[in-house]
Amino acid sequence: MKKYINPIGAGVILGIALFISFIIAGQGMGASGAFARATAQIAYTIDPDFANNAYAGKYLKSGNALINWTVIEVIGIFIGGFISALIAKRIKPEITRAPNYSKTKRLIFAFLGGVLVAIGTRLARGCTSGQALDGAAAMSVGAWIFMLAAFGAGFLVAFLFKNQWKGFK
Amino acid sequence: MGRVISIVGLILIISAGVLAAVSVDYETQLKKQQEISFKYIKNAKEALEKGDKQQAIKFIKMAIKSYPDNKEAYKLLEQIYKSESSVKETKPLQPTKPQKPAATEEEEEEELGC
Amino acid sequence: MDVVFPLYTSGFLDSTTNLWLALLIGIMFGFILERAGFSTSAHIAPLFYFRSTLVPKVMVAAITTTATLIFLGVVFGYIDFNNIFIPSTYVWAYLVGGLIFGVGMVMSGWCPGTAVTGVATAKIDAIFFLLGLMFGMFIYFYLYDAYEALREFANSANLGKFTINKLFNTPDLRVAYIATLVMSFGLLAFMIVMKKIADKKGDE
To answer: CB A12 to CB B6 under 8 A?
Structure first.
């Protein structure tokens, strides 16, 4: 396993990449939007009536919800992450959890956490990347409201999930 | 080693920003915005020469957005609409000054995001 | 042709090319996230226990770097700030959305972007997170469609494209830039101090 790079250095390079994204596409890098669109597309395939949904309808208006900047960019994230992990030999099937912590419980929490994150992103129009990172970099007030609320809530309820991560550095 | 380079790099970038913030006042910012506006006008004219009216109108709208008092932009817009109406013999469209972003524009922006 | 940035939203790039470039931008993003160690929740969750300053370090360095470059681009007249996409600020929806998001993040140890790199490195919990994410999206679509109250709440208190300088009633972008620096490094300093305190306490 290779060592990870210095966080500040990673941040500076990430910042430059984000800047490139801004000056090419006019928007920063996102993630949650792609999953919202994927969900809308799947629901639409199962039930075409879904095109009338008040929220998902706007994704489906243009035909295929998946032909979209953020969706393609997220495919890129996967490829980029895979290449990096391949080079660094970090691809290893595992369930990240504290030693001895129940696997089932960990996976249930991962799933339920995902549900909450999804609802949070829809209300906040973005996630840690699309809202917090991009918004703050573009000097938006909303990004800070979101970021401070998210961190604050995280700190407040962290004790509930302590056992999942016990023993991690 | 990597740590030192990283921190120095970040400090250098931010110093450049702070230096700019100290030396560039608001008037200069406005002037730069006007320059951008005239860049759009130039591009609009080039698009017109190529016969791409739609693109030209897009450029002019952005020119007005970055410099709402750009007279050249309104003149050019009027020209386009006039020539359009004489060709198609339809009702001339009124070049209106976009005071606030229209609702449709807002929606379009929402689409871009995460 | 006098090019204005951003290329796509200023009309200098067609949408097909823009979509192809999105793939490249995504690859860069994913690569860096994985390099920084964001492909495992073991590096993200400790943030909430003040055990690690990795996340705030990367975020603050990225935010300040990008904000600086954008600011320079704007004041030197290369970037049209009007064409930089900034999501409209919906105060209450962002606050509540952020709170829910934070709970979900500490519960799962992931956020959407990092989970994608997590899946790329075969983390099973990341797969479950993304499944939950899509299920949550579906729930939200359903609730949004069914309840007028949610639609109203989600779209209330819209301040539009609200950069920090507008909070101070000035169009001067310098204010927003300096405020961004202060907020970012304030956050980082807070996290570093909290970690020092947590380290001193030293229980697990």
So the answer is: yes
